[in-house]
Amino acid sequence: MRLTPPLLFAALVAWPWLGYSAPSTQQTGGALGWHQSQRPDAADGSAVTRFTLVGKLLASPQAAGSDSTDLVVDCAATDGSSTHKGRVLAATLHPGVDLKVLYIEPEEIHGMGYLPTIDVLYRTDAAREEKEQWSPGSDKKTVSVPRDTLKKILHAHTAAIAASDTHGSQVNMQFDIGDASQVVQACGW
């Protein structure tokens, strides 16, 4: 069968509507939900349940090529009994960019050293914005989320987190928390 120019043109125009779809490059953030994986704990050989939620990196001039951020929660696995409930081992934010680390001198140990912190603003759902200081990870590319803040985040529908990158520009991150009941259950909350 030979296609005439008008039929060829019609076929090319109709091609996208016939089931062909180009791969999407836009991240859908938390719409994908929490991803669960298991890994052994090197310290004692027990299993650790890891929950990962992909978020969106909304604004950062330094985030060339990166448009996502992750929230990772590690919980000690349970044995299923009511006496051995899970517990949170760590909650870590992977911002996708290097954040500005501040060094503060603790009041109780004057002159002994400085504690590294990262100033963070966060808001859950329609609550008011809160300012906290979170600890940077040892690799300086992650941030530890405090337990009380993690509880607030897990019980919300959305969370917005902002901090400054190493150049002083504001980095805005957004997470669609969705159904976090599996995380809450696995972590013994």
Summarize the structure in short:
With 189 residues, the chain is mainly β. The chain has one domain (26-186): Sandwich (Immunoglobulin-like). The protein has three helices and ten strands, in the order αββββββββαββα.
The whole-angstrom Rg is 22 Å
Estimate the global geometry from the Cα principal axes. Answer: globular
Count of separate DSSP helical elements: 3
Low-confidence stretches: 1-31
Q: What's the main sheet like?
A: 8 strands, antiparallel, barrel
SSE succession: HEEEEEEEEHEEH
Which bin fits the share of residues in helices? 10-25%
DSSP summary, beta strand count: 10
Structural class: mainly beta
Strand order of the largest sheet: 2-3-4-8-7-6-9-10
- Beta-strand content estimate: 35-45%
CATH architecture label: Sandwich
Tell me the distance between the termini: 67 Å
CATH domain class: Mainly Beta
